Amino acid sequence: MTRETDGHEGGDRPGRLDEGFLSIDVESLVRKVAGQTFRSPNHYPVELVRIALARGARRVDLTMDRHSLTVTDDGRPIERSELERLHGVLDASLPVLERQKALGTFESDRGIGLLAVLAPSPGLVVIESGDGRSGHLATIERLVPRLDGRSMSLAGTRIRIHRRSADLRAEREAVASWCRFAGALVTVDKKTVSRHAAPAGAMAWRRSGTATVWIPSAGDLCRLWLLDHGVRWHESVRPPVNGLVFEASVDAGEDPARVWDEAGRIARALYEELARTHATSMGAARARIEELFFLHHRRTSAA
After folding, report:
1. In degrees rounded to 5, what are phi and psi of residue 229?
2. What angle do CA 106, 110, 115 make, to 5 degrees?
3. Which residues contact 62 (CB under 8 A, 6 or more apart)?
4. Element (H, E) at 24
5. How far is it, in rounded angstroms, from Cα 281 to Cα 107?
6. Which residue among 108, 196, 199, 301 is least enclosed by CB atoms within 10 Å?
7. pLDDT per residue over 47-56, tens digit each?
8. Could you report the per-residue pLDDT of 68-77, keeping only the tens digit for each?
9. What is the sign of the dihedral through the CA atoms of 186, 155, 251 and 170?
């Protein structure tokens, strides 16, 4: 996002990239990048979990209130080079193109990495990351960065973000939903949200290899979620496949076309399982089974 200035906004303003009369507001640009990557402004805690798991974390703990978020993990320390790149995004002494290049290194098809700490327009960010003996302390206060090496007993990473306000319910729901399939332990305010086989309310489910297939309790579309270290990051949607409504998740390294075919075969077996339980099902579950078989009949008979 570029715009002209009247010459009164200088390059020494924190967070602003300037070159001649062109400037880019880093804070606005980060929000734009996050908006293009995340489904909602409440998604950035999920990204911090994803990059912790990518560093090999076996446990990630989040504590949050309206004005702060702390993410602690036991994974490998953040590389100093990554902290330097984050520093470079905000360093007003660097040329604008160098800062833009640093910002671009965080973007990928799966997220924006450590850049997510800037998504809530924080007043203060503190990143501590070490191996139990030494580590690095990075602070960003009002978009002014500082990076130091020091002795550190912390084995892992702790990120503290102080923000103006937050929708706590939406943030908690986002982490619980998107990190549900993570094999590592993920907690939000001491409540475990990971290590689940299928979404809450799934009518029936089955695991095959790295794929999990389930029959959803609502909806009439098929969905396939690709996972990165157990965190959902990409969704494909299709109309019912051979009249069957199902959803599936699979590790990102799998071939989606093959997974769709395999998921369809598993879904047929799950439908047969639901047919056997129909007579003993009650209330909403019974009504959903009847709805699914009605949709299947309508789709297949029309074909």
Report:
1. 55, 35
2. 30
3. 45, 48, 49, 69, 70, 71, 72, 175, 186, 187, 188, 189
4. strand 22-25
5. 47
6. 301
7. 999 999 999 9
8. 999 999 999 9
9. positive
